[in-house]
Specification:
Layout lengths: L1 H8 L17 H8 L4 H14 L11 H12 L5 H25 L14 H6 L13 H11 L3 H22 L4 H51 L2
Helix pairs in contact: 3-9, 5-7, 5-8, 7-8, 8-9
């Protein structure tokens, strides 16, 4: 337990998702501090991070059912019941969003739906109801459904990150100076990183558009000057 105490006191406070513009420490600096962990703890942390932040370039030739089986098998290797609950909550939210997108894209068909968590059966049984019959059972799900219905993808992602952040923060506070607190901090660091990248993406798009416009203007000016030289 002493190494967790030393590690947690060496980690800075993370900014809230709403105010985050940069991270208080880089991934390299974070890894340097995480080197205090034992090999077993490091392996567990890596596994949980991979599950919490699945790669975007996953093999799309696999069905959702195949991916769910892989995630279930990987979750069986998580040793902490507390952290396993954090993963289950994460996949419950992801399952809800996957169901909303699948139902919208497939004109209501349910045949390819796959998911994890306690609400999977509820979603399947109430597939044709606007919010899968969750209105009085899961208030957070209702708010996510409303954002999806209004096609507010940015708000939807923001709400998802806020729910995950709140869950991790609560767990971190309940398990001071334990391995669970370390993992929750690292996952919250990942959420902040993702939030900053999401904010940077529109700015980068605008910058690229402006650059292309300037390049077109420069090409036009260059062509005009060449024509002027021959007049």
């Amino acid at each position: 337990m002493a190494q967790y105490l030393t590690l947690m006191t060496a980690l800075p406070s993370l900014p809230s998702l709403e105010k985050a513009t940069q991270l208080p420490l880089s991934r390299i600096a974070l890894e340097r501090r995480l080197s205090m962990l034992s090999p077993d703890d490091s392996q567990q942390l890596a596994l949980i991070e991979q599950l919490y932040f699945p790669p975007l370039n996953r093999g799309w030739d696999q069905s959702d059912q195949a991916w769910v089986r892989q995630w279930q098998e990987a979750m069986d290797a998580v040793q902490s019941p507390v952290l396993l609950e954090r993963l289950r909550y994460h996949f419950e939210l992801r399952t809800l969003l996957a169901a909303l997108r699948l139902r919208s894209a497939s004109q209501g068909r349910i045949s390819s739906f796959a998911g994890l968590g306690r609400w999977r059966g509820q979603i399947q049984r109430h597939w044709f109801e606007p919010r899968f019959g969750l209105d009085t059972l899961w208030p957070d799900a209702v708010r996510l459904c409303q954002a999806f219905e209004q096609q507010q993808s940015g708000l939807l992602e923001q709400m998802l990150n806020q729910l995950l952040w709140r869950d991790l923060w609560r767990c971190e506070q309940q398990h001071h100076f334990m391995f669970e607190a370390v993992v929750c901090f690292v996952l919250r660091w990942g959420l902040v990183e993702r939030q900053i990248k999401n904010r940077a993406a529109p700015a980068l798009t605008r910058f690229q558009a402006q650059t292309e416009q300037l390049m077109r203007s420069a090409d036009s000016l260059s062509a005009w000057l060449k024509e002027a030289e021959h007049v």
